[in-house]
Design a protein that fits this description.
heterotrimer, A alpha+beta (412), B mainly beta (270), C alpha+beta (411), A: 412 residues, alpha+beta, two-stranded antiparallel ribbon, B: 270 residues, 13-stranded antiparallel beta sheet, 6 helices, 14% helix
Chain lengths: 412, 270, 411
């Protein structure tokens, strides 16, 4: 590649003032890296609420019968639920899917009763989508070969004054209008540390709920995605592929009470990222400006030697471009390893925060992971180049106007 | 001994989620006592005969009567007096006579459906099945008592374990058969020498702990039948909780016309 | 530092206004960013608290002991009016109101459905943090007029003007029943209200459930939410409340405490990022500016200045710049917080949402953050940023001191 004379000058200028160049590149690089790490962290943390909802049983998406949403009618069933489940599992972007059905019921033991929502689940796939049931305090979780078994929350057990292996009488309003009863043996007690969660958990195997209520089939399929950003796309794809009569809802439609928290978080996240990037940009710009301002003498000389303003401008832009590129690369080199660490290992807040966290029966992870993706490169380039180029605007304008003689006369 | 007799088959009957619900099953069940044998002597009775007697004690093809129910709680005592009509196993009408403030409130059961009539607002409402599940009024009778899908004969293995001196009578022990769907793993009974009427029942939960005690007394002849007319239920572990039911008047196997069990009747409050 | 050095430093700064201006801008920006972020972050954690606790929880709750487990009407707070009056006099209480929660059956036609009656104080719950915040304009419960949760209303088939029968069990065990007019339908993100809620005035509920001068709970909103625990202790210590359970929200929903602590820790991390970003900018600028002046320093050395003198000069300049810049940044930052404190920052608008407020099913949910600063924020910023600018000048200063004058002048 042969460089134009301007190019050569720019290159030599950069290499001759190695300290200045190094300082510039480092400055830009560090600023970039900080912005990248901050953005990655904030983005990763920004979907905290979403992940919490998704992993506490709701999933990112929920396949429900049409007409379910307004009153959350538990009695409705999916059309061809097994086919819907299979389709969901095969849809690209889906990490896991699990079927469920629910019914209000009464648990009774001796003279004590407790009203609960009984959830019929598939023990093999439920834990993948439901962090809650992994916090078994006593006993174990349900198994596919269980018969007449249930897992309840510690709060439910307290209300009924029951223990592991006790047998509960469950009564539900069955399809034919009658009340249907059965005996359930407690094989596991869930203890999440959250009182609201622990006093509502009651799960049995799906086929047994079907038999108890007299309503065959699943009422919902909860879907967990690989990447939450793909939610709209997967929702559309899934909706098209499903048997008619089923609707795909997002977790926000299912848990509207979380929406306020979610929106607050999203808004705040955007504000943060914007601010940090702005601060970095301005910081780099000011440093670059400082550097360029000091070179007025040099430009004055060039101008006196006959260099046109346009050429000086182009020179500055070339230097800025080169610095920006180098700075971006430095920023990536410095920032990507940190982002990678934060994305994979993450920060465990368990050290600072003891108890388990939950909002609206949704458990929240204590390990934060940063978000990592190709977006890092364009962002680094945008920041670095943006800053250096903006920094040349004023000097270019100024240098163009300078009277060489007066510039040379000034001591600095 | 159950005060309420079974509905048809294994399916549970609806229990109202409203005030008088726990009466419904009871009164539905007032049954015919077919020739109670008053013979009782020192010889241990036939266990199956005793169980049959207990199962059928209040059974009737139709009944008309008055009942008083008192629910005692720490800090309050509430007494209701009601008139009752039943026909077969799934028709019942109950009207509250006392206290005055609630007089005229009525409950009607026809098949699976349960309605309440509220005179103060002149409205009839139908109780939804889901409300039949949630514990509505704190009485010490359980859902199981009202629903009655089981019978002593079919669901328990019984044997006579000896004599009881205080109260005097025969002691029976009932152990639930393995597949029984019910709250009680074991029931200890004492039946009287004359007529095998229940005197005391102790119900043990499925872990085997004593959950409640039922006492039957004030044996009288009512409607041609000799029955304990007072039943008191005391749950264990709930200090100050107690429920007492008294039959004031009762006719068994009465011919109660079908027309009694209609919504119009309910609202006219006959 | 000798005054002559200071004067010289001062004059130097004044002589090259552009460079000085730039440095001041960088430092001022850093301080401003820190303060603005601190203010916004505090406002965010405040908003988080209100959002996650929601209208249901409030800041302090008062119940009869044991109520939270069984929620039975028998366990009620008695002598309600007297206690509410006492609370309204308590310093630290912004708002005190009572609620009744009772299960009931409701019906428009003959078919009844399970519901929950909430007896509330319409005045108190009408604010942005109350249960009636999402109620239709001007529609309030009272005098046998009720609001029904949207999903429940749909399920029952009620519209404003319908007559609703409510049947339940009174505190004395009697059958509670009465007729009410539906004044409106209330959409709510709170599941309980939306799917099962019948909102009536506290008086109506007290009458229906035979609870004169009683309630299920008293809810307090504190003037300073951060001090909820202290307020609860103060109230619990009063003789009028002996025997009652007085809990700050942290004890009512302990699982939320950790979330807010998490948000706090997370905010610190964010502030650190902001600081590092700002510091990098400040340091870069200071270093760059100082290094570009090597020529000038070379001349000074040639003219007989001692290296030590040069260093002191540079440090003095940096110190002045630091202090001035921080002062500027503090003014701007504090000004920003003061300006936005009143009306708050509308987050949704900032983020590019189509509507200025987030909406859900036709309900407008404004998301505002009200920035707030504590004195420590300013002090920390001052220390950090000023120190950074100082340190950032030290290396070039040291370098300058060791210069060979000829070399320097030639660069």
């Amino acid at each position: 590649m042969t460089l134009s004379p301007l190019g050569k000058y720019a290159l030599r200028s950069l290499t001759r003032h190695s300290r200045r160049t190094l300082l510039s590149v480092l400055g830009i690089g560090i600023g970039c890296a900080v912005a990248l790490i901050a953005t990655a962290y904030i983005r990763g943390e920004g979907d905290l609420i979403e992940r919490a909802a998704a992993l506490s049983g709701t999933g990112h998406l929920r396949v429900s019968p049409a007409g379910w949403l307004p009153q959350r009618d538990d009695r409705l069933r999916l059309r061809d639920w097994q086919q819907a489940l299979a389709i969901a599992r095969q849809t690209p972007g889906v990490a896991a899917a699990t079927p469920r059905a629910r019914s209000n019921g009464l648990l009774a033991f001796g003279t004590r009763v407790a009203g609960v929502e009984i959830v019929g689940v598939d023990p093999a796939t439920e834990p993948r989508l439901n962090r809650v049931v992994r916090s078994i305090g006593a006993g174990r979780y349900l198994r596919p070969d269980d018969r007449g078994a249930t897992v309840i929350g510690q709060g439910v057990a307290d209300r009924l004054r029951v223990r592991l292996d006790d047998e509960l009488l469950v009564t539900v309003a069955a399809r034919d209008g009658n009340l249907q009863s059965a005996i359930l043996r407690i094989v596991g007690i869930v203890r999440t540390g959250s009182q609201t969660v622990d006093s509502t958990v009651c799960q049995i195997r799906l086929p047994e709920l079907e038999a108890l209520t007299g309503r065959p089939g699943a009422a919902e399929v909860a879907v967990l995605l690989e990447r939450s950003e793909e939610m709209p796309a997967v929702q559309a794809a899934l909706q098209k592929a499903l048997p008619a009569g089923n609707v795909v809802h997002t977790w926000i439609e299912v848990l509207p009470e979380l929406k306020a928290s979610f929106d607050l978080d999203q808004g705040f996240t955007r504000l943060l990222i914007g601010t940090i990037i702005l601060v970095v940009l301005l910081g780099i710009t000011s440093a670059q400006l400082a550097s360029v301002l000091e070179r007025r003498r040099e430009f004055a000389v060039l101008s006196a030697l006959g260099m046109k303003e346009l050429s000086i401008a182009r020179l500055l832009l070339l230097e800025a471009g080169a610095l920006g590129l180098l700075g971006a690369v430095t920023g990536l080199l410095l920032g990507v390893p940190v982002v990678y660490y934060l994305a994979t290992v993450g920060i465990d807040y368990g050290a600072f925060v003891d108890a388990d966290l939950a909002i609206s029966n949704v458990l929240i992870d204590k390990v934060f992971h940063a978000d990592m993706g190709f977006w890092l490169v364009p962002q680094a380039l945008a920041i670095a180049l943006g800053a250096t180029l903006v920094a040349t605007v004023y000097p270019v304008w100024f240098a163009a106007k300078t009277d060489p003689a007066s510039a040379l006369r000034v001591a600095q | 001994m159950r005060i309420f007799i079974r509905g048809s088959g294994r399916a549970a009957r609806g229990r109202a989620g409203v005030p008088l619900c726990w009466i419904v099953g009871l009164l539905i069940a007032l049954g015919v006592l077919s020739g109670a044998s008053l013979h009782a002597g020192p010889a241990p009775p036939d266990v199956n005969a005793v169980l049959a007697k207990l199962d059928d004690l209040y059974k009737s093809s139709g009944s008309i009567g008055r009942v008083e129910m008192t629910v005692v709680r720490p800090g309050s005592t509430r007494t209701l007096v009601m008139r009752v009509w039943t026909r077969g196993e799934d028709r019942a009408l109950i009207i509250i006579d006392s206290p005055a403030r609630e007089a005229g409130t009525a409950t009607l059961r026809v098949g699976q459906n349960l309605w309440n009539y509220l005179p103060r607002i002149a409205r009839t409402i139908r109780i939804p099945p889901s409300a039949m599940l949630s514990p509505w009024m704190g009485s010490d009778f359980t859902n199981d008592d009202l629903v009655q899908e089981s019978s002593y004969r079919e669901d328990y293995n019984a044997r006579i374990t000896g004599r009881s001196t205080d109260p005097p009578g025969w002691q029976l022990r009932l152990d639930a058969k393995p597949d029984t769907v019910g709250l009680w793993r074991r029931i200890d009974l004492v039946v009287s020498d004359d007529g095998w009427l229940p005197v005391v029942e102790r119900h043990y939960d499925r872990r085997g702990d004593l959950a409640r005690v039922m006492r039957f007394d004030q044996v009288r002849v009512m409607g041609g039948r000799r029955i304990p007319t007072r039943v008191e239920v005391t749950p264990t572990g709930k200090p100050g909780h107690r429920t007492v039911m008294r039959y004031l008047e009762m006719q068994f196997n009465a011919n109660v016309p079908e027309s009694t069990f209609s919504l119009q009747r309910l609202e006219q409050n006959r | 530092m000798r005054s002559s050095t200071l004067r010289l430093a001062w004059r130097n700064l004044g002589r090259n206004r552009k460079r000085t201006g730039l440095a001041l801008a960088a430092i001022g920006l850093g301080q401003f960013a820190l303060l603005a972020m601190s203010g916004i972050t505090r406002g965010y954690t405040d908003a988080m608290l209100e959002t996650v606790t929601g209208p249901m929880v409030g800041h302090v709750q008062i119940h009869a002991p044991g109520w939270r487990d069984e929620q039975s009407l028998e366990l009620s707070v008695t002598a309600l009016d007297a206690r509410l009056d006492a609370l309204r006099e308590e310093p630290g209480v912004a708002r005190a109101s009572a609620r009744i929660y009772a299960p009931a059956l409701v019906a428009v036609t003959r078919d009844a459905q399970a519901a929950v009656v909430l007896g509330i104080d319409p005045e108190a719950e009408s604010g942005s943090k109350g249960l009636l915040a999402t109620a239709p304009e001007g529609v309030r419960p009272g005098e046998h007029r009720v609001l029904v949760g949207r999903a429940l209303a749909q399920s029952l088939g009620v519209t404003p003007g319908s007559e609703l029968a409510v049947v339940g069990q009174g505190k004395d065990g009697s059958i509670a029943n009465d007729l009410y007019t539906v004044a409106g339908v209330i959409p709510s993100a709170i599941d309980l209200v939306n799917r099962q809620g019948v909102l009536m005035s506290l008086e109506d509920a007290q009458q229906l459930f035979v609870m004169p001068d009683e309630a299920s709970e008293i809810i307090l909103h504190a003037t300073r939410p951060e001090a909820a625990r202290e307020l609860a202790s103060a109230v619990a210590a009063r003789p009028a409340f002996a025997g009652l359970e007085v809990l700050p929200w942290q004890d009512v929903v302990p699982e939320l405490v950790a979330i807010l602590e998490l948000a706090d820790v997370s905010s610190y991390i964010v502030l650190i990022f902001v600081f590092v970003a700002a510091a990098a900018g400040v340091a870069n600028t200071m270093m760059m500016a100082t290094f570009e002046r090597l020529h000038e320093f070379g001349m000074l050395l040639a003219l007989g200045a001692t290296p030590a003198r040069i260093m002191r000069l540079i440090v003095a300049e940096a110190a002045l710049l630091g202090l001035l810049g921080v002062a500027l940044g503090t003014l701007l930052g504090a000004g920003f917080v003061a300006a936005t404190q009143g009306s708050g920052l509308n987050l949704a608008a900032l983020g590019g949402e189509a509507a200025a407020e987030a909406t859900w099913q036709g309900m407008a949910i404004p998301i505002h953050i009200f920035p707030r600063l504590a004195a420590t924020d300013v002090l920390v910023g001052v220390a950090a940023v000023a120190v950074t600018s100082l340190l950032a000048a030290l290396w070039p200063a040291w370098h300058a001191a060791r210069l060979e004058p000829m070399e320097a002048m030639r660069s």
